[in-house]
Design goal:
alpha/beta, 6-stranded parallel beta sheet, 21 strands, 18% strand
């Protein structure tokens, strides 16, 4: 029988089933190797203390501090009517601030004996607010005694590693488990080629693992982190380089527009001139389309920078060259809207085969899941015969029934909402793989583009077309200053009075299907997020009474959604109360105001996207971010940052710096099992750029990585099913 390699040994064999179960469920750690790659978040020095002044609300924290005072109080309660209830209040300090700890009932006896003034300990718990003061209720703690033997054994010298932990497993227990498995680090297989490691002066992987978990000096930590950052950056860049290499081997039909075809006629009719940015990006796209392997390009542009126009010109170029173009949108609302705006922009050029259609015209069809059978049959027929040069649709485009005459270009709007299976299914509909253009309005810093969209070439549109209006953004602190919220509704009435329209955005729909989530929220002592249906009702009866108010959310029937959007676009509705279905691509130039309720429940990029729905005409836009979070909270700082700048690239940097690093590569997974543990996408731009160069050279010389078994193993681990899907979908 083969022995299991040391790093693949299941934790339940090494640490026992109870601990292993908690590690698997709460931290996603299953093997010895997983645990060794669970790195400390930071280190405390025995002589130094944490900054209590900077503790985040509602987060599970570990702090090292000294007891300043401890008082036992008696009180009467339902359970202890005779004043026999006991509450222990312990104040701890670190010089920068103080923090209250509270223990109740029978739980007071042990800490009352142990937590005497002057005692040092590590405390772990969830930070909450009580009487406007931060506190930890019933924290777990571990005394830091001065006993030299114990401290050396348990804490590895002066630096105490603080691990990402959970309520069920404190940092020091994780530390002890890691001490148990640390000897196995000697057997870690190194993914970096020897020449690269020596050339960059990096320590070996076993040494890095030892130094990150048991550092004796700060230099040990720096050595370990420098090495582990390279591992993460390099393995990821090799995965992406192999994808690019494989894609470059595929054949494609070059598509060059004819000199006086559809594109030329379209350009001649445009009522404005293209911005320099639009011209430059179009050139990059046309150069790619002219080659005989498929284009893979990411087009990122600020909200309203004219991406749709650039994409339409690329589609017209392909139609000119005898092919067809498909545009994939994430929602029916957006597909319908793209279809309307493309047909409007093209005018009679979109009426191919119809009376009154221009000579060079083609047909533009819409294909969505909710279309009637007759319209759908006609659309499918137009595609298979080649009558329709352009099709715009949702996932319905990918179904088996949909056949193209000659698919030459696929444009995917808001790529991060699409999975790989869909991208590949659509690719399979061309005689040869079609060219691919991916659009996103979420600005992506260069390093993230290299990391997340590393298999795509990138084009950036950062100029706004002339005539776009500025958007003023303000935070409305509803809890501290209720009159600010009243003023917000007055502002909405003023905008409507001036002939404009407004959006009110809420995080939740508010019908029965939301209830289980709502209950869970309330159990967590948090008010459930505000809901569209409730807010619309309150506004209609209260501050916005007399205005024409409608609701829009994702669970409405597609026809109803489209009807609501049409009425709003036509100006028949004053105020649209909606969920984030309006986040992407909805274009109503007359809408000038947006009120975002519970704005702290949205991410920075999402708020920026939402805000981009106003100020699309000649009148200035107004965006009000309503929140009940206290002024000092990170959520309020985040909203302040959004209000302070309209620069999406700046905001995406802030967003990344504030989110946990692993979230960059995909959905925020629970705990720490993300592919990035030490690599900080924003700060480590240089490492990522260098790793990309090394990876490209390596893959060009040896695409199969024949001489590098360690690297192949690391790739397999990175590209387990979930990561493979994630990388694939970009």
């Amino acid at each position: 029988m083969d022995l299991v390699p040391a790093l693949e040994e299941p934790l339940k064999k090494v640490l026992g089933p109870p601990t292993a179960k908690v590690m698997a469920e709460h931290l996603g750690l299953h093997t010895v190797g997983d645990l060794l790659h669970h790195y400390p978040r930071r280190y405390e020095e025995r002589g130094q203390l944490t900054h209590l002044a900077d503790l985040p609300m509602d987060e599970h924290v570990t702090v090292v501090a000294q007891v300043a005072a401890a008082r036992l109080h008696s009180f009467a309660s339902a359970k202890a009517p005779r004043g026999k209830g006991q509450r222990l209040e312990v104040t701890i300090t670190d010089g920068s601030g103080r923090l209250q700890l509270v223990f109740f009932g029978n739980g007071v006896h042990k800490p009352h004996k142990e937590l005497l003034p002057g005692t040092r300990a590590m405390f772990a718990g969830k930070v909450s607010l009580f009487n406007r003061r931060l506190q930890l209720a019933h924290p777990a703690y571990e005394l830091l005694r001065g006993d030299p033997e114990e401290s050396v054994e348990t804490w590895a010298g002066a630096l105490i590693p603080i691990y990402p932990a959970t309520a069920k497993l404190e940092s020091w227990k994780i530390g002890k488990a890691i001490q148990t498995v640390l000897p196995s680090a000697q057997e870690a297989v190194d993914p970096l080629p020897g020449s690269l490691r020596e050339g960059r002066g990096l320590v070996s992987l076993p040494e890095a693992l030892l130094k990150i978990h048991r550092p004796h000096t700060k230099a040990d930590i720096d050595d370990a982190r420098a090495r582990l950052k390279w591992d993460e950056a390099f393995v990821l860049q090799v995965a992406l380089a192999r994808r690019r290499h494989a894609d470059a081997q595929l054949p494609a039909v070059p598509r060059r527009p004819s000199p006086d075809g559809l594109l030329t006629v379209f350009d001649d009719r445009l009522p404005f001139t293209l911005t320099d940015g639009q011209r430059k990006v179009s050139r990059e796209i046309f150069d790619d389309l002219a080659t005989d392997h498929p284009m893979h390009r990411l087009l990122q542009g600020e909200v309203g920078s004219g991406k749709t126009l650039v994409a339409l010109r690329a589609m017209l170029a392909v139609v000119d060259a005898g092919g067809q173009a498909a545009m994939l949108a994430p929602t029916e609302v957006l597909a319908q809207q793209h279809h309307r705006s493309v047909v409007e922009m093209m005018g009679e050029l979109a009426e191919g085969g119809m009376l009154g259609g221009a000579e060079q015209a083609t047909k533009v069809v819409l294909l969505t899941g909710s279309m009637g059978a007759a319209a759908r049959r006609q659309a499918l027929l137009d595609l298979v015969t080649g009558e329709a040069g352009i099709v715009i649709g949702t996932h319905a485009l990918i179904e088996d029934k949909v056949q193209f005459h000659d698919l030459g270009l696929v444009v995917v709007d808001e790529q991060h909402r699409f999975g790989v299976e869909q991208r590949d299914a659509l690719r399979g509909k061309g005689k040869q793989p079609p060219h691919l253009l991916v659009m996103t309005a979420t600005p992506i810093p260069r390093t993230v583009a290299m990391t997340v969209f590393g298999d795509l070439e990138t084009s950036v549109l950062d100029q706004l077309p002339a005539g776009r209006s500025p958007i003023a953004s303000h935070v409305v602190p509803a809890a501290d200053k209720p009159h600010f919220l009243a003023r917000a509704w007055e502002r909405v009435r003023e905008e409507v009075g001036n002939g404009h329209q407004a959006y009110v955005v809420c995080p939740r729909i508010g019908d029965d299907e939301d209830e289980p989530k709502k209950k869970a929220q309330e159990e967590a002592d948090k008010r459930p997020p505000l809901a569209v249906l409730d807010v619309a009702d309150q506004l209609a009866k209260g501050p916005l009474t007399g205005l024409r108010i409608e609701v829009l959310h994702g669970r409405m029937a597609p026809d109803d959604k489209d009807a609501v959007m049409r009425r709003f676009a036509a100006g028949d509705t004053d105020v649209l109360v909606a969920t984030t279905v309006i986040e992407v691509g909805v274009n109503v130039p007359n809408a000038t105001a947006m009120v975002i309720m519970d704005a702290d429940r949205f991410g920075v990029s999402q708020l920026h996207q939402l805000r981009g729905r106003v100020g699309r005409g000649s009148a200035p836009g107004l965006c009000l971010l309503v929140t009940e979070m206290p002024e000092a909270s990170p959520a309020r700082q985040r909203l302040g940052a959004v209000a302070a700048t309209l620069d999406g690239f700046e905001l995406s940097r802030i967003d990344l710096e504030q989110r946990r690093e692993g979230d960059v590569l995909g959905q925020a997974q629970s705990g720490a099992r993300t592919s990035l543990r030490v690599l900080a996408v924003i700060e480590d731009e240089e490492v990522i750029a260098q790793a990309r160069e090394e990876a490209v050279a390596l893959v060009a010389a040896d695409p199969e990585l024949t001489g590098l078994p360690g690297l192949r193993t690391a790739l397999d681990a990175l590209l387990d099913d979930e990561r493979e899907r994630y990388l694939e979908k970009g």
